[in-house]
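Here we describe the complex-level prediction in full. Unlike the single-chain runs in Section 2.1, the two entities below were treated as one system.
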Amino acid sequence: MTLRIARTAFKNIARNKRRSILSGAAIAVAAMSIVILFAFIGGMSKDMENNLRSYYTGDVNIRNVDYEEYERFNPVHLTVNIDDAESAISNTEGINAWVPRTTFGTSIYIDGTNHAAVGVGADFEREAGYIDLEEIVKAGRLPEAGKNEMIMGTVLAENLHFSIGDKVTIMTMTASRGTNAMTLEITGLAAFPVAALNSNNLWIPLDRVQHLLQTPEAAQQIMIETAEGYNRSKVAENISAALTAAGTPGDVNDMENMSLMFGMLKLADMIYNVIAAFFFILGSTVIINTTMMVIFERMREIGTLSALGMHGKELVRLFLLEGAFISAVGAAAGVVLGIIITLYLGRVGIDFTDAMQGVDMEISAMMYPVLSIPKTIFVYFYSVIIACLATLVPSRKASRIQPVEALRYI
Amino acid sequence: MKNKLIIFALILLLPASAFAISGEEIVRKADDKATYDSAEMAGEMRITDRFGTKTSTFNSWSRGENESLIEFTSLAERGQKVLRTENEIYLYYPDAEELIRMQGSALRQGMLGSDISYEDMTGGKDRASQYKIEVTGSETILGRDCWVLSLEARTRSVPYPKETVWIDKQDYIVMKGEYFTKSGRLLKEMEVLELGEIDGITLALETKISDKMKRDSDTILIVKDLKANVALDDAIFSLEELSW
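The structure predicted for the assembly as a whole is:
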């Protein structure tokens, strides 16, 4: 009996190819969109975490014990001694790389006017083992330690009409809460992955920043990359213990405990998931709507089948099977298409450079979607199940009406 | 003899206000007192903020009311200079290859993070013509009888639209000052902590300035040495010499 109904379902699908293809295509487009959306959101989350790790916190971060309390007052003098940090790090397992960095607010002086920027003091030799500097420096070369040189974000350079070889005077507050200024030569232009950095960052050799800010032998923070398989929180605990044992306590936190930064990441994740839920509901509506419409428009056919002796339950089964076949093929096509598009975009990326200008978020201007296999499998089965369930409402209704009444439907 | 008696009687009959010095005159005399034809000074600034107190030392040279040069001598700021010419303020930093001209909102920044802004330096000393001045009373500060004067700006080109100042009746020294926005919000306070005499000149040896826009912040300006009316080379106040 079931086999006969299945054969009928197949025949029905084949009989009205245009209707079946349109219905399947709607399901395919919905499934494909959801797969791409999940990959896009996955990519954004991963990207934000990478950027936080590379440019803001590291997996583990060491700062002065009082820094967080006074952070909003730009406490340039609250620093970490690099030698103290190095000895604590060298006595701790599970560390891949570490870099000292000092980030400070500055203004670029051009003919009597000041332009706000963010200076970053970096040890470029160490940075090479921490971030992909080759990829970042798009033109020119890296600054040399001991020289008054800098690399400037490409967007900032473009906005202020600077190019390689130009000399730029910057002013800033010092650790003694006075002011100081320094003239630096631009040796390279940097295309940072984060738009905000691109439009305001100047990277300067750390020793020159120490001189400028009057913070000898010190950095504002030490950013640490943990080795694969090591727990960030455990590594942070061990470094903290080593610093305390050496009599030089520091504020050591793993990424999750950097209150503001990771909190922002979590908030962003939540916002993405809410957006995803909306699109997911939208996709589901397309599937439900298409499936239900296909059945409602076939009331005359249902009446004929009832008149020929097909019972209510058989009718429900027939439409359920029709929906299942169409959605299985449609969802499969959509998911495969979604995977292909995601893999392609994951390789070439989506360029949001123009759109991200002036956006102060830790999201890269180039977005690379990340495919999630479990989520993709979920999307496939979800699409099939939702399509099958959507057939139940109209087919159950149809099974309860009299053949004569059904035949009146136009 | 009869005529003399009549004149004496007329003088006695004149209202007391005819002898009173006007607010404009008090302020003009106070500004003149604070301005030297030329002067060389050594001083110290003790700047206190939420992170503690730091001391910066400096030497300064001034000529008239529009030219001055400050050179910082304390370790953290050694070699930094602030030059005020008639219309501009320039900063020199040893590691900068160009002079920095302060203008616009940058003038409101505190010099070396102190409570004294660059704008305070530019404030012309001819307040008598820039403000509508009214004597509102008398008060005693540091044992000295002072006029209390209320100043309201006639022009927009002054750092503070409203001021209340206490001026010593004996030596015309500004003993205290309160500086307000147009709507009456207190921006800054100045108070002499110690008066003294150097080289025969009575002046404020210690003055406390508090920027009310900053929390827990004040600056004490201390005059260590002063030589008035000394011969100064023109080059001291030139841009060309500033970077040397």
